[in-house]
Amino acid sequence: MIFRVDPHAPEPLFEQLGTQVRAAVTAGALVTGDRLPAARALAESLDINVHTVLHAYQSLRDDGLIELRRGRGAVVSAPPAPALDELRAAIDVVVDRARTLGVPPTTTLTLLKEALR
């Protein structure tokens, strides 16, 4: 899996990494038992601080998506994602409506995060 970060994006780098892993697990591109890159190697390849990668990995661990194992690194531990077609369709409706109303993506995302709390 190839990771990318945008240092100019409003989302913190560790969140960008976490979002990519969550999306890959949801899409089935990463499954239980898959290993993520070593934090140091990933940090070097993205030209970011190793602590940023570790922060992302710790967040994913706290969410139950990965296990951090000494000597083995980060391993996906999340069960296969349920079928999310209906949820994706509902999200598409929200995105289309937000665009129609001219609501910026960051505001839409903030509203969605608040609704999930």
In brief:
With 117 residues, the chain is mainly alpha-helical.
For the residues shown, what is the average pLDDT? Answer: 92
- The helix fraction, in percent, is 55-70%
Here the CATH topology of the largest domain equals: Arc Repressor Mutant, subunit A
Low-confidence stretches: none
Task: Give the H and E element order.
Answer: HHHEEHH
Number of domains: 2
Q: What is the CA-based Rg, rounded?
A: 16 Å
Side-by-side strand order of the widest sheet: 1-2
CATH class of the largest domain: Mainly Alpha
Strand content: 5-15%
Query: End-to-end span in angstroms?
Result: 30 Å
Sheet of most strands: 2 strands, antiparallel
Number of separate strands: 2
CATH-level-4 superfamily name of the largest domain: Winged helix-like DNA-binding domain superfamily/Winged helix DNA-binding domain
* Helical run tally: 5
SSE class: mainly alpha
Features of the shown structure:
117 residues, mainly alpha, Arc Repressor Mutant, subunit A, 2 domains, two-stranded antiparallel ribbon
Q: Would you write up a description of this structure?
A:
It is built from 5 helices and 2 strands. Strand 1 and strand 2 form a beta hairpin. It has 2 domains: 64 residues, Arc Repressor Mutant, subunit A (Orthogonal Bundle), CATH 1.10.10.10; 32 residues. It is 56% helix and 7% strand.
Strands, helices and their partners?
Layout: H1 13-27, H2 39-46, H3 50-62, E1 66-69, E2 73-76, H4 85-101, H5 105-116
Antiparallel strand pairs: 1-2
Helix pairs in contact: 1-3, 2-3
InterPro entries: Tscrpt_reg_HTH_GntR, WH-like_DNA-bd_sf, WH_DNA-bd_sf
Domain HTH gntR-type: 11-79
Protein name: Transcriptional regulator, GntR family
